[in-house]
Structure formats: C-alpha cells, structure tokens
Amino acid sequence: MKLIAFLFSLPLILFTHSIQAQDIELKWGAPVKNVRGEYPSDVLGKDETGFYIFKSGSHVTLEKFDNNMNFVWRRELEIFLTKRIEVVFEDIILTKNKIIVFTSHYDSKTDTKKLFASYISKDGVIEPKLYEVNSFDNLSSKKSVVYDVTHSENSNSILIFSNFREKNTEKEKFHYKVIDENLLQKNQSFIELPYSGLNTSILDYLIDNAGNIHLVYRVNLKKEEENNRSNDDKIDFNYYIMSFYPATKEYKEYDLRVGDHLISGISLVIDKDSRYMYIPGFYSEKRLNALKGTFISKIDLINKKVIYAKQKDFDPVFLAAVYAKASDDDDEKKKDIEQAKKDAADKKKTKPKEQLYNYDILDLFVNENEEVVVVSEQYYVHVVTTSTTSSTGVTTYHTTYYYYYNNVMVTKFGADGERVWSSNIPKYQVTTNDGGFYSSVGIFFHNDVVYIFYNDNPANGTVMSQKQLRTKNPQRSQLALISVDGSGNLKKRVLMPAPAKGKGIATRPKFTVQVNDSQVLLLGYLSGQYKIGKLELSTQK
Description:
mainly beta, 53% strand, 3 helices, five-stranded antiparallel sheet
C-alpha cells in the first residue's frame, strides 16, 4: 500500500456571513496536492476523529481529514485475494464503528463471482483478511451479476443487492442479503417481480431502520401486455414500489400511476422512525411530454396502506418562469411569459419548452410536522456536431457537448399532501465538454430552512430577479447562497465573493454532503490543489 503524507500547518481562510437568524461560517482547510487522475467524488462519512473522502479515477483511494479539514492520510484501495490475484473494488461504507470495503472476484474456471468484505482502521490500515459475504455460480460471464451495497440510516443493517444483467422473458429477479457491521447474516432471499425482466428497470432501492427493503421500478406496460395496441388513454410506462418485510416474508406492491399522465421525475424518503414513506415527483402530459404538475403519495409502512395520493397542476405563468431564458435571451423570455399569460386567459395549453425528464430531483426532506420539501433542477445536454472537408476530400467531424444547469425549483407539500408552494430560483450555468464539473448546486437543510449554493456570475449580485447572467467561469464566480424559508420566501447572499484579480477557489457544489444537523462539507479546487471546506451552522440565541 502507498502512503503519501501531506501535513500542513497553514492558517485557515475564514468567511463568515449571517443569514436570517442563523450564523453560517465557512472554513477552508489547508490545500492538498491533487494526485493526477484522481478526483474526490464523495464523502464517505464522519466520525469523532474526522472526515473520510472517497476518490475515483485511475486509482480508487480513501483519504482522511481531521475536524479542521486538514489532510491526515491517503490509501490506495489495492486489495489482494492471493499474491497474484487483485480483487475488484465494488463499494465502501462507514457504519457507526467501522469502515468496510467490498470487493469482488470472478473465477472463470468455475463461473463463480464472489463478494468479499474487509476492514480499514481509522488509522488507514487495511486488514489483509477477506471475508466472503456473497457468491453466485454457473454464471456466463463476470458481468452477469452486479453487486451493490447500501446501509440503513442508523447503520444497523447493511443491504447487499445483487442484480442479474442477463435479461430475458422470465420474471425480473434479484437477490438481497442483509448483514450487520460484523458481517453476520440477518436474512437473505431471491425476490421475483411480477413482470418480465426485459420490460422492467429497477431504479432505486433502500433499507429502512427497521430492516425492511423498498424498491422503485419502472415497467414498459406497452410491451408487457400481450397484443397491446397503442391507446391514448393508456400509459406506456408505469412506476411501482415494492416493499418487502423480511421478518414476516410479506410483499406489498404500490401502483404510482397519475391518471394517464407520464411520470417524469420520482424520488422517495422514509422518516427516521421507518413509519411513513413519502414518494413525491413530477408528471407531464403524454402528448406534449412537457412539465404539467406534481404528485405525492404517503404510505403507512406498518399497516401497509396508502394514506394519501395527491396531484396538482402547475400554473402556466409559473411554468413560464421555470423555463425562462437567461437575460442574454431577454426578448425571447418576455415572449414566453406573455404567451403563457395569453394561454392561461384562453385556457389553452402552454407551449412546452424543455422536457421534464431534464428536471432532476436532487434532494428531499421530511420534517417533524410530516411536511415534505423537494429540490429539483433543470438540466439538459445540447450536442452540436460540425464537419469540415479538406481540399483532399477528407471530412473531419467535431462534436461539442454543452451542459446546461439552469433554474432550481423548491416545492413544499403539507402534512395532508397538498402542495403548499413552489418557488423558482433563477440560475443559468453552461459549460462545454466538462460534464458540468463545477455546475449545479449544493443543498443543505437546517431549522426548516433549505439552503442552496452555486457558482454564480458576480454581475448578478444579490438581487433575486429573473434577469440573471449565465455563469461560465467557476474560478471567477461568486459563491451565491439562497435561503428558502418555510413559506417559500427567497433570500440571496454571497457566501464567498469572486476574486478581485486572477482566479480564486473553484467550488464544486455537486460534492456537497451534510454530515449532520450542523455541519456541511464542500470541495474547492485551486491550480493543482484542492481544499475541503466546512459550513458550520448555528442558531442565534
């Protein structure tokens, strides 16, 4: 194993701003030299000694920072089954007491793929012993089964989810196994869904604090039903949730259809007591495939029944603001709003702009009052291919990818499931050929206030207006912070100003993780270096 010790004693850079009745303090740790080909991709978690950062790229590595965000150690996750056989990294988790790395190995001689677990100490020592935690044989290739690992919020249960990639006309089937942090088995089983594997896509799954497993999946009903003909009154795709209760071996499927509309965005959250599950999302009209409204369902997980299922259309004028252009396209934006007002008056359908499947649900929260807040963002990719032909007749093609991360929508549902409000945050970011590395937003939730920050054109200032300039250069951007209170009111502040000269810290909002109620981690890049930042949240007395 390689050990690279970068220990710094440089002073911290401190920014402090007061937002509403709360203090939000931003601290940056000392800079760390960036290893070529490696990128911090996620925060594994936090314990009493510091933070753990997972990095991917040419090598899979784990890094530790102390509570002052200063670098402690780095480990490449090179793990061997034998002296010659290196296992393949699959996943890594942090439970209450242990860091566990999961790896796999496919034996082509026996057509067997095994999943192993091993421990890493808080000092970064990787234990050499590998524990076999799952195995499947008679496979046609190493890609026949894909392992994934997640754990419950309280870390008492670790779910090993095994999905079989060889789709056929047989029923969709997967395997689950639940273990604890000591790798002791709690239960395991195969689960078969009542639909063909070819027509079913498993989108998400989780294990709650009670050890119950919940799946979200989509079914192509048009192909699933024999001799099914196209009918405008029927939907082609539908979404379902399957809840499985290992203690009683019970299954319960919930149909999430919203009339004959298309579900274009969906997510789920379970309260900390594992009593209720909330499934909010967006729907669109089948013919237009454009943003139409919101839906939400609440499920009683103990009594296995739906408490409510609500839907509500958006106001056409609000949709015009949601799909508004940057101020660079101000004339076109005015036309959009005027057209929306005219359509609303004439009771006509608004002209669709961007399609809803580009409106991604980024995060959602449920508070103690059983109210749900959903944060989503308009995202799409525009691809432009050009060609040139030389004098010799050779044609060369060049493709440019434009990544757009635009307006953010925050929506609140009341305890009865009714949509209380939706607020639009005007934001316009576009970059090329970088995957939107510095674009999008960071999100955290504190005292029933949602906070959203992003790289912003400094010319936009702190005015909350639809007239926003596009953000194109993250190293010359201000870090804007938007607070959304319980009534949907918006307030904009500058968390970190743009540099007066040259280039400053380029923050990567997508990396943001709220590790507890009062601490949020974020990531910033300098030339050849990066820093871990921490937002500390407190309420004024």
